[in-house]
What does this fold into?
Amino acid sequence: MIPATFEYVRARSVREAISLLQQHGGRAKLLAGGHSLLPLMKLRLSQPEMLIDLGPVDELRGIREEGGSLVIGALTTHDEVANSPLVRERVPLLAECASQIGDVQVRNRGTIGGNLAHADPAADYPAAALALEAQLECEGPAGSRTVPASQWFVDLLTTALGPDEVLCRVRVPVQTKGQGWSYIKLPHPASGYSLLGVACLVTVDGGVCRDARVAVTGAGPKAVRLTKVEQALVGKRLEEATVAEAARLASDGLEASDDLYASAEYKRHLAVVYTKRALLRAAERAAG
Amino acid sequence: MTGVRVSMTVNGVEYTRDVEPRTLLVYFLREHLGLTGTHVGCDTSTCGACTVLMDGKAVKSCTVLAVQAEGARITTVEGLARDGELHPIQQAFWDEHGLQCGFCTPGMMLAAVDLLQRNPNPTEDEIRHALEGNLCRCTGYQHIVNAVKAASRIMGAAVGAPAGGE
It folds into this structure.
């Protein structure tokens, strides 16, 4: 399978990419690692007339710590995130998530910015970004703006990114002592995408859960926070019975869709099972 | 359709060609350079038959545009042997019978090279995990895993490191 024809241009800087987007409007799409976009182009599900390759834009690479957050360049690969000593130490939830994306080859090419801008409903990072309350830094003709993950995912393959904007960096608050975390997923056996994945981050103080963030991906058109589960945990000790009871709320009102491999009913069931497992692992880690 | 000029180093040789932007790296290697050792399997970044090393890292060349490899160093299965001598991973696949039909073998070996560069002495678990992106429909994987273990021993011995334990 080969994509339909398109024009190809390499951007040398974010500025140049923005001006190319302005010139070519909705005809053009940005290309990072290509591991979300190219498969869709081969299937003709996406048919941009022009690809603007961000590959040469070095300012979009790298991971640094700044003011209590890690700032991760949009072109940073899943493999770089998964194996970065800084990410593993400061935001282990993100590293755990990145290490489960696709397979080694996919992680060597796929990028965090491409993943989040594409917003595949079964991608892994969106769940982690929601649980970590990441901030997405975009640049456009009018300057830069920051979008919280909670407002980023709009619908199926649709984000808050403007048509002439570039997602440049992802700012992720570092995890603190007393926080437990986990990302677990049931991968589709062929594609490696999540049939269902759950990210959670719990803050425990004096044995009691003070804050809980739980996000699920794979069930419906976009990743979502499970606020009912979160509310059922705050103020409680994260014992198995409490966690199991809260996890039962994971399917309550959860939008889920049937696909060739799994029914909506099965995905809602998985949401309960994986939420419980993810929370128990996070609770164990919070206890140290 | 106007071509785009692309230059890359493949197995140590520099090539410059004009290609259609939609040319996938795997077809560039096979059809423009005649390097047919890299196979097209599923064509959907699932099976790993098209795995090559791009700047030292295993990638699925069916999901990379040739133009994205501008300036890159590519290694295909044809580039593994040196001066007529098999690369340790090739020798190990031979010795351990790590293949039957051979279709997945180039991709398997290049994914294994990526693993052994990062982790010269992997456990069986680590080997299986590292080969998740490569499908074999013949062998049941056991002999492939044995071959990667054997290669780690050969390569460990070659640099004077302790031999890989079982």
Q: What stands out?
A: Residues 250 and 272 of chain A are 5 Å apart (CA to CA). Chain A touches chain B through 30 residues (CB under 8 Å). The mean pLDDT of chain A is 97. The first helix of chain A runs from residue 14 to 24.
